[in-house]
């Protein structure tokens, strides 16, 4: 994105949370989890895209999930986004991180904290 576009205020809606992960972060988390990303980014249509293994399998801790929320907000701020609305699918994390309420609170807090630092308001769209 060129600097003129970055400077324009934006809203980023219907943002699929797992697909916002920085490639370097995804590679790090996948490596730590012992998962291969070979062929992961190769798809030509929506059914192939949807058939990718869930990225949630790479997220091993609540700290990882918090980091991803923070990085999303940092990246949105860098691109001039003033309002972001990621779609989160908390049931994928709930069994490992304390249930639906705990995961929602963790993500909401991480988005709010990063948003306050970077000047980005973050709403949430729930996906199931």
Description:
- This protein has helices spanning 3-7, 23-33, 46-50, 62-78, 100-118; strands spanning 10-16, 81-88, 121-122, 125-126.
- The protein has 128 residues and is α/β, with parallel strands linked by helices.
- It has a single domain (3-126), classed as TIM Barrel.
- Strands 1, 2, 3 and 4 form a four-stranded parallel beta sheet that branches.
Give the key terms.
128 residues, 5 helices, alpha/beta, TIM Barrel, 45% helix
Quote the distance from N terminus to C terminus: 32 Å
- SSE run: HEHHHEHEE
Rg of Cα set: 15 Å
Topology-level CATH name? TIM Barrel
CATH top level is Alpha Beta
- Helicity, in percent? 40-55%
Number of helical elements: 5
Mean pLDDT over all positions: 91
Beta-strand percentage range:
5-15%
Describe the global form: globular
Q: Kindly name the structural category.
A: alpha/beta
- Under CATH, the homologous superfamily reads Metal-dependent hydrolases
Q: Write down how many β-strands occur, each being a DSSP E stretch of 2 or more residues.
A: 4
Short description:
This protein is α/β, with parallel strands linked by helices.
């Amino acid at each position: 994105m060129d600097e003129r576009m970055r400077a324009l205020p934006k809203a980023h809606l219907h943002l699929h949370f797992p697909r916002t992960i920085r490639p370097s972060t995804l590679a790090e988390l996948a490596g730590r989890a012992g998962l291969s990303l070979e062929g992961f980014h190769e798809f030509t249509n929506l059914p192939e895209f949807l058939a990718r293994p869930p990225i949630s399998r790479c997220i091993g801790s609540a700290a990882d999930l918090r980091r991803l929320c923070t990085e999303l907000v940092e990246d949105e701020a860098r691109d001039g986004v003033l309002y972001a609305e990621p779609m989160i699918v908390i049931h994928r994390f709930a069994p490992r991180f304390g249930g639906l309420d705990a995961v929602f609170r963790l993500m909401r807090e991480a988005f709010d904290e990063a948003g306050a630092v970077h000047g980005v308001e973050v709403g949430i769209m729930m996906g199931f």
